[in-house]
Amino acid sequence: MRRTPAAPGRASPACREIVTLAVMRPIGTATRGTTNPNRLRRMDRWIAATHGPALRRADHPVAVDLGYGAAPWTAVELLHRLRTAEPRTSVVGVEIDPERVSAAKPYEREGLTFLHGGFEIPLPERPDLIRAANVLRQYDESEVAAVWRRLCTRLAPGGLLVEGTCDEIGRRHVWVALGPEGPRTVTFATRLASLDRPSDLAERLPKALIHRNVPGEPVHAFLRDFDRAWAAAAPYASLGARQRWITAVRSLSGDWPLADGVRRWRQGEVTVKWAALRPNP
Question: What InterPro entries would the database entry show (predicted)?
């Protein structure tokens, strides 16, 4: 189809969008910026495994590492891990602190760029993935829903937002996966050898859930049941922490709507449908 040229003196819609994004003041506040290599490996591998088919269907798959911090390691690693699922994937690191963007520029390469921005996601195209790890911890719980909505409106059709929190070296991690329609699932992931009991993951609940780990709230009931299942599976500890985890998770599946199976459980993960853990009004 032949494209009608823009009228003289008037920029095309695509150009106007680029200009608007370029001059827009970034939305949000800077994080502490702390990061470590391999900190987000559990989240990255889950994304590559579960969202890989969507990336392969995209014409030009683009992922955003939002709020990557004082060093660009997480964006570099995200590119490497997503390209194991879809080699055409590009990654854009977005940071609200311009000094962090300048420091990351030397690490740019084919398929990896860094931009100054925030929750507005300053890309002319809609990305197929936005990963926001350890970004919302400093915000109030009341602000989370609005941030989720803003980020989800920037997603391409079939896109995914992954927002969550992990410890400093990535042993324990909990994240929410959202589509353009809103939250879908919550994933709990851990290094099994370091786990005393599943409720240890409570300290890494995302902001939308961390203050809801109290009696009467669904997430509290889930972690309580998980601890009980873990204790009942103690005899399997002689076969290793992985077998104990799989046994405990399997016993949960009768009462909780799990969204994954043994293949992911073996990685020290379990994913629960958001509707079962949604906070009470």
Answer: SAM-dependent_MTases_sf
